């Protein structure tokens, strides 16, 4: 009976040892996965920064800086507004005269759809 108990004790000890090894292996696997994930994130971030730099270089080379584009748009807008204002100033008096003539020169007439029986 003692040898049987001793055999059971050995089996339980071996089972505990195996469970500990499995747990340790799971912990190592989890650490490796976490490390791999962190390395992948750092590689992704480095790649993203590199691509952003390339894009900014391309953008500045082909389009100029955003300040330059905004300044050009403002300049074009001011130029167009000046043209519109000059055109308005040169035609203002003529338009006022035409409106005044329409208001003061009323020509009463019967509408073409009215029938006189």
UniProtKB/TrEMBL annotation:
What name does UniProt use for this protein? V-type proton ATPase subunit G
> Per the UniProt entry, what species is this protein from, by scientific name?
Daphnia magna
GO BP terms in the entry: synaptic vesicle lumen acidification
Query: Sorted alphabetically, which NCBIfam families does this protein's record hold?
Result: V_ATP_synt_G
Q: Name one GO cellular component term.
A: presynapse
* Subunit structure of this chain's protein: V-ATPase is a heteromultimeric enzyme made up of two complexes: the ATP-hydrolytic V1 complex and the proton translocation V0 complex.
What the entry lists under InterPro entries is as follows:
V-ATPase_G
Q: Which GO terms describe its molecular function?
A: ATP hydrolysis activity; proton-transporting ATPase activity, rotational mechanism
Q: What's in the keyword line of the UniProt record?
A: Hydrogen ion transport, Ion transport, Transport
